[in-house]
Amino acid sequence: MRVGIVCPYDWGTPGGVQVHVRDLAVALQRLGHTVSVLAPAETGTELPDYVVSSGGSIALAYNGSKAKVSFGPRAARRVRRWLREGDFDVLHIHEPMAPSVSILSCWAARGPLVATWHSSMDRSRALSAMYPIAQTALEKVSARIAVSEAARQTLVEHMGGDAVLIPNGVDTSAFGTLPALDGWPGSGGALFFIGRIDEPRKGLQILLEALPEIIRAHPQVRLLIAGPGDVDEFSASLPEDVLAHVTFLGLVSEEEKIRAFVSADLYIAPNTGGESFGIVLLEAMASGTPVVASDIEAFARVLEDGDAGALFRNEDSADLAQVINELLDDEGRRADLATAGLERAREFDWQTVAARIVDVYESVTVTGERVTEDLRGQVIGRLSRRSSDRDEVEL
User: Fold this and answer.
1) Residue 392 falls within a domain, yes or no?
2) Domain identity same for 187 and 329
3) Is residue 6 within 8 Å of 105, Cβ to Cβ?
4) What residues have CB less than 8 Å from 243, skipping those under 6 apart?
5) Enclosing domain of residue 149
6) Structural domain tally of the chain?
7) pLDDT (tens digit per residue) in 130-173
8) What percent of the chain has pLDDT over 90?
9) Cα–Cα distances in Å, from 225 out to 40, 101, 166, 338, 368?
């Protein structure tokens, strides 16, 4: 099958959607499919051979974050050329409402079209204003996928209809395979955080507010921080006694990230909201590193309400410090969480997730049009057999 995949966000900027698209493309290729990905990319960005650039990007405030997207006449021309030259059996567009090449591809598409929703967001005037414009594109969508219940609810509330629930995937075989970073984790307790350091909803400030209490209980504890942002400006705001326990890695490669996960006794995810899933939790769990996360809905689902990882009260630094201190003192509990987390991560392995997505592709390529009622029943049955959940799908 020839599959075209559209990623709305800049390929060279770290993000959950980009990682999802990359790993899906690789998983589909392993299954024998031909894949081409269209994504914004700045000049000089090193791209895999399956990625085609839609041109440079601009930063845009979107869903509580800054997204680098590609839009306008030039991007539209590149979209049309890519579609024409690709001659795809199915087109898979991610975040179809994003003001980028995603919605441009919806408008230009002909033939079977699958769309995946990643984001969780509250209703807003901007989204309401976008609805009439987006609706003209979304009418072409043959099948809808949501990566989480939160993303599905966003779709239902903003656009109507429903979607099959197929979660994010993780290549479990890639994690836990490389040695820890030199000198880590050590014997005094090691914590790891990854995310944009100056983005409030990633919650780093909450972890730093908890750190003095953690240091009092564990004087040799160290915090490893990875992610983009102005390290000099950020570190200048920290008290010297706290900064002495912090190591900044900056923007890391995939190999460095894999090593960083196994360099810690605990992975900390203090995100405050705006997350629909939590792929980074699965990466930590696949590495065998126990997770401590805020109890936002998306994270609680991934961690099975605390069975596969520890939860703390969202935005409560005192509770976070208590949970971390208790786990640093309890090696047996950490080992139990590591085992449970690894088992949970394997449920989301890309081999399983990609097969479910191919089921959706096959359902919409039988006729090249919207799926018949008989086929609707067939695909729901096939997807249900692959999952213990009772998924619903609008096709």
Assistant:
1) no
2) yes
3) yes
4) 235
5) 2-169+350-385
6) 2
7) 566 667 777 889 999 999 888 888 888 877 778 999 999 999 99
8) 71
9) 27, 32, 30, 21, 47
